[in-house]
Each structure stands twice: as C-alpha cells, then as structure tokens.
C-alpha cells in the first residue's frame, strides 16, 4: 500500500500513530535526513538498550586504562605547544 499526502507546514509535522502502524514500522523508528527528503524506517531490532549518555560515559571512563606514561613535562598545561607548536 502506498499513500501520499501533501501538507502545508506551519510549525512542524505530526505523523499519526495509525500511519506508522499501517506502514508496519512498530514502536521504534529510524529517521534519515537527506537534502530534499526525510525517510522513516523501522529501527533495527539489534539496537542496544543502553542509554546513549551512559554508554558514552562508560567508554570515556576506559580511555586512560591503557595509557603509557609519557615524558612530556606538564602535558596538560602545554597541550597546544606539544600538539600544534603554539605557545599557550
């Protein structure tokens, strides 16, 4: 089944739950934006149920776990100088 509807947008677009159900999209969708179009697809069933913020925080906490002790003097303060050759 294919159905097209033209809408005049004043503040946004609301897609009725019945349309999503008729399209077989289910409770989770993936939205893709490209120039001239927006696509809405059913979300992958393999999506992790971890909150993105918690997943990011967990990853951040592990970043220094395998760090090697360096030989640069006061690397935090002299960060730009060491990386870019600039004086702070």
Please give a structural write-up.
The protein is of the alpha+beta class. The chain has a domain of 45 residues. It contains three helices and two strands, in the order αββαα.
Largest sheet properties: 2 strands, antiparallel
Structural class: alpha+beta
Q: What is the helix tally?
A: 3
Q: Note the overall shape.
A: elongated
Number of strands: 2
Percent range of helical residues: 25-40%
In short:
The chain is of the alpha+beta class. It contains three helices and two strands; from the N terminus they run αββαα.
Q: What does the secondary structure layout of this molecule look like, with pairings?
A:
Blueprint: H1 17-22, E1 29-34, E2 37-42, H2 52-62, H3 79-84
Antiparallel strand pairs: 1-2
Protein traits:
88 residues; alpha+beta; 26% helix
